Amino acid sequence: MTYAHDIIIKPIISEQSMDQLSDKKYTFEVKKSANKIEIKKAVEEIFGVKVESVNTMNMLGKVKRMGRNEGRRASWKKAIVKLTADSKTIEFFEGMA
Length: 97
Known about the structure:
Number of helices: 3
Number of strands: 6
Strand order of the largest sheet: 1-2-6-3
Distance between the termini: 35 Å
Strand content: 35-45%
Oligomer: single chain
CATH class: Alpha Beta
CATH superfamily: RRM (RNA recognition motif) domain
Structural class: alpha+beta
Order of helices and strands: HEHEHEEEE
């Protein structure tokens, strides 16, 4: 059994994600194997909000060089969660905007 805190890894704080807060869209890094239904349930359970839709993206890790050697950062999954109009906001992001 997977817990909600295992699915939602961390929030993503960027300029683009902060601009989407006014539309009640929140961005999270999520477990790579999680699907949209699991992400929706996890966000609703952790933050006590109503989720309207979930969009997911697989992000490729960047290629990095260390001198002559070349490596790659780990790939990860990003989820943009849109809340319903009557839902309350997520308090964690309120101080950031």
